[in-house]
Design brief:
39 strands, elongated, 9-stranded mixed β-sheet, 22 helices, 21% strand, 934 residues, 29% helix, single chain, alpha+beta
């Protein structure tokens, strides 16, 4: 392993910036240009999304669905969880739900992540289309998040809403706010009345209207809903088992004002709802005087930490040192307390409309000022921005095991928000977005830089809780703009040394790891290499990529089963209905792209094509929807699986990356050499590139992959450069290039780039011909389990059977080895074929048909050119059949070459006792007598 400086040393030294940033803060506090500069280590450079426009085709159609979704979605719904956390008005907006809300999986502990993805999607949409509607939405979000951060830095302030009698205070659900009353509020009274107006907005049980107590042993409370959904008053000095209680008879309506009152006098307690006594207990022995002076005197908060904070509004809270009569209680229905028969409470009386700050004056004359507080303390530290408190970040620092109901990847969520902010800045040049992003990194650095090395390593090694996504990549990108040494130091604080060192040594330790927790780590390592020159980072990333592709890769380009990796080389053994988490493909494409900037090994772009044209395209449903982006989480590869485009109640990580993928399809079609000497055409897609430095445009006209090739037309001025055209690894014969109708000399090699160098002029036309062939790919651990490809397109069988289908493909195989003649094309449906009555269709089609991505290969008899020899097709112990060995020699120049292959192959099978001589003779004669497709 290459020695490297310790992180602590780097943090304490001035040599943090091995590569000087290209941009720094200007005097105005904003960056001089909204661009992430390409690192000097990159030998290739990408084009911006605005430089590559999509033409009509499958990509444009899929993208339009997402553009329409982004344009129509109300971003105030996304901002709801942020505003609620800060105690700000949500304007009645309803959170998206699922993972982006309080009622989804794990108590909504990942909320905020989806909003970050959405900002990235909007930023890409604006960069690609220039449509101001997307920029307007981005600016709305940035403005709101600026307000949120400011509110989190201060003590909570009253949120005024329309009350029963005037103004009222609302506790927005998710704000964690409550009212803290002075310890003497109950006055030691033996007889008492507590009266208030409430407007609950959520139906969770055990939300406290008030709770006076010391702990979970000694207390007195009133809840809007008990376990039966009705109001309940209780008092105890010996825990819940000894509660003396009053239970209502009906649930309080949501979003309506209700009056609640409790009276205690002697041994009688009464609960009133809207002026009517609904419960009476004549055997009460406890009252506030027995409780004594209590530590916690709260409106809206429970002494039980697991109970929810009250969500809703308060209007008037009065405490009397006597039990009001029924008539006095009834008088509250038509009068404010001050105008009622009872008057104001003599122990405490609060008008919640009396302040716009965070304190509430006491109108009783006792001067018992109440204070609005947050359960998690306050205010937040400088720079902090999230849709939940800092508590998850704090908990993670002492956590030793995963529990996503307590801590669910807070730095992962921070990454999504940070990335969304940075993308927003790059797209709109809004300095507020950069300030928010920079502040988040300042906050993270102030927190993480104080932790011991061992603590950081433990944190990042915890499944789920310690997941941090692609935060390192984004922090380094931000560093190249801000130039803050602390930001580069922060990026290095996320080093997970056990993983980095193992991969740098090319030691495969991925078995049992959570796939998507680790893939984006390596995009960050590549960017750290770019910024520091530390070679172990790049080496680790390259080696890691090789551990996944192809050893843990499905045919569609996806990886993982139930989100985890298994042993190297296990593919068939990982097929399940939770295979191929979509985020994994998203991140593997990013990593492949980034590695290609350093090393132009065509394998990276071969993988990119596979993943993009199959899993990524197929993860987006071909359907419009205003509410959901309609993208997959898992892509089950079990027989008959139907894709779920609205997974896990929505707003998952994969729907987030799915939104991003669908608005950047064109980001890797073209790259340029760092010195401008060459243009790489990596993907064949209908696009127009504007290469401003050269003064030229390149327009691809194609219906690829429905068309087997593409036409590139040069526009603009003239420029000298080398055009490097990717020859896919599957394009083993017939790849051909012409310029202005004249064939270009040279021998294209599958899995490489074919170069055409000249001075290009407007009107030059390059025609690329890429013949497809039908082929199979075998599962590494089960050669009989196979998936079908036609060129770059993975074809899946549409069939409702839940058992593997069996197909033979050699029956009419062409001399070239192309299996296509065995299948029949479906008229009017490009890339659709039938075999034995089953239709095969591109995986990329986002339908809800039951599909078979893999099938069981079955070639029971030796057949050539549709002529059946009647001889059983023998197999070796490894599963290789006689026909497999014969066709492994394809392509054959002519029939004689195939017959020669048959003649030279059968003797060893006879010698091995797998084939009789008579059967061998029949096989040869059948091959000789058959007619073949060329």
């Amino acid at each position: 392993m290459t020695p490297h400086l310790s992180r602590r040393f780097l943090l304490q030294s001035a040599i943090l910036a091995a590569a000087a940033p290209a941009f720094a803060y200007a005097g105005s506090g904003r960056a001089a240009a909204a661009v992430v500069p390409a690192p000097s280590a990159w030998t290739l450079r990408p084009f911006e999304l605005k430089d590559v426009s999509l033409g009509q085709g499958v990509f444009a159609s899929k993208r339009q669905l997402m553009l329409d979704h982004g344009r129509g979605y109300d971003v105030n719904r996304l901002l709801q969880v942020f505003r609620a956390n800060a105690g700000l008005s949500t304007g009645g907006a309803v959170a998206p739900g699922g993972w982006e809300g309080l009622d989804g999986e794990a108590n909504g502990n990942l909320r905020g992540h989806y909003t970050g993805h959405f900002m990235s999607m909007l930023s890409q949409a604006y960069a690609s289309t220039g449509d101001q509607a997307y920029a307007d939405k981005i600016r709305t979000m940035i403005g709101a998040l600026t307000d949120v951060r400011a509110a989190l830095r201060t003590d909570p302030r009253m949120l005024t809403v329309t009350g029963r009698w005037g103004g009222a205070h609302e506790n927005v659900r998710g704000s964690y706010q409550y009212v803290d009353l002075p310890a003497t509020v109950l006055g030691g009274a033996a007889a008492i009345t507590l009266s208030t107006w409430v407007k609950p907005t959520h139906d969770a049980n055990w939300q406290r209207v008030f709770d006076f107590g010391n702990n979970t042993t000694r207390y007195m409370y009133l809840v809007t809903r008990n376990a039966s959904g009705v109001p309940r008053f209780a008092i105890t000095t010996n825990g819940p088992g000894s509660e003396q209680a009053l239970n209502g008879t009906a649930a309080l309506p949501l979003n309506q004002w209700s009056h609640l009152a409790v009276t205690i006098s002697g041994t009688t307690g009464t609960l009133y709802v809207n002026g009517t006594a609904v419960a009476t207990n004549t055997a009460m022995t406890l009252n506030p005087s027995v409780l004594g002076t209590l530590t916690n005197n709260w409106l809206g908060r429970s002494n039980y930490s697991g109970d929810p904070v009250y969500a809703g509004a308060f209007d008037e809270f009065n405490v009397y040192s006597r039990a009001l009569t029924a008539a006095e209680i009834t008088s509250f229905q038509g009068n404010e307390a001050k105008n009622s028969a009872a008057g104001l409470g003599n122990l405490a009386s609060y008008y919640f409309s009396a302040t716009s700050g965070g304190t509430f004056g006491d109108a009783s004359g006792r001067g018992l000022t109440a204070t609005l507080r947050r359960t998690w303390g306050g205010p937040s530290h400088a720079g902090f921005l999230a849709a939940y408190p800092e508590t998850q970040f704090i908990d993670l620092e002492s956590r030793t095991s995963a529990d996503y109901t307590k801590v669910w990847a807070p730095y992962y969520t921070a990454h999504k928000i940070l990335k969304g902010l940075l993308d927003a800045y790059l797209a709109t040049d809004d300095a507020r977005a950069l300030d928010l992003a920079s502040g988040m990194c300042d906050w993270m650095y102030s927190r993480l830089s104080k932790l011991p090395e061992a603590t950081l390593q433990r944190m990042w090694g915890i499944f789920s809780s310690g997941e941090f996504g692609g935060i390192v990549e984004t922090i380094v990108d931000l560093y190249t703009i801000t130039g803050k040494a602390e930001h580069l130091a922060l990026a290095k604080l996320f080093d997970l040394d056990t993983l980095i060192d193992a991969c740098a040594a090319n030691t495969d330790t991925l078995d049992g790891l959570h796939a998507n927790q680790h893939i984006p780590i390596f995009t960050g390592l590549v960017r750290l290499y770019d910024a520091t020159g530390e070679t172990r980072y790049l080496t680790a990333a390259k080696n890691f990529w090789g551990m996944v592709v192809p050893y843990r890769m499905f045919g569609i380009g996806g990886t993982s089963t139930a989100e985890f990796w298994k042993a190297r080389g296990l593919v068939a053994g990982t097929i399940s209905d939770t295979s191929a988490e979509s985020c994994c493909a998203y991140n593997l494409l990013k990593l492949s792209r980034m590695l290609f900037f350093h090393d132009q090994d065509p394998k990276y772009m071969d993988y990119y094509e596979r993943g993009l044209y199959n899993q990524v395209l197929g993860s987006k449903q071909d359907k419009a929807d205003a509410e959901k982006p309609l993208t997959t989480y898992f892509i089950g590869l079990t027989p008959g699986h139907v894709r779920d485009y609205t997974p896990k109640q929505g707003t998952t990580c994969c729907e987030g990356t799915g939104m991003e993928s669908a608005t950047k399809y064109q980001d890797s079609v073209y790259f340029k050499k760092a010195d401008g000497s060459a243009l790489y055409v990596n993907l064949y897609s209908p696009t127009t590139l504007t290469w401003s430095e050269k003064g030229v445009t390149v327009t691809q006209t194609t219906d690829y992959p429905r068309e087997q090739g593409s036409t590139l037309t040069i526009g603009g001025g003239s420029a000298a450069f080398e055009l490097r055209l990717r020859v896919p690894s599957w394009a083993t014969s017939g790849f051909r290039v012409t310029v202005n109708g004249t064939a270009v000399s040279g021998t294209p090699v599958a899995g490489s780039y074919f170069a055409v160098s000249r001075t290009w002029r407007a009107g030059d036309v390059v025609r690329v011909t890429i013949p497809f062939r039908m082929r199979v790919e075998k599962a590494l651990d089960d050669s009989g389990l196979q998936t079908l490809f036609y060129g770059p397109v993975n074809l899946v069988a549409r069939n409702s059977s839940t058992s593997y289908l069996q197909f033979g493909l050699y029956r009419n195989a062409a001399l070239s080895g192309d299996l296509l003649p065995t299948l029949a094309p479906v008229a009017g449906k490009p890339l659709h074929y039938t075999l034995n009555g089953t239709e095969f269709a591109p995986f990329s089609e986002g339908t809800e048909d039951p599909t078979h991505a893999y099938f069981r290969r079955s070639e029971p008899r030796v057949v050539f050119g549709t002529t059946d020899s009647g001889v059983t097709n023998p197999a070796k112990t490894d599963g290789t059949t006689l026909l497999d060995e014969i066709w492994a020699g394809a392509p054959f120049a002519n029939k004689a070459a195939l017959v020669s292959r048959v003649q030279s192959t059968v003797p060893s099978w006879v010698s091995a006792g797998l084939l009789t001589q008579a059967a061998a003779n029949t096989v040869v004669s059948t091959a000789q007598g058959a007619t073949y497709v060329a």
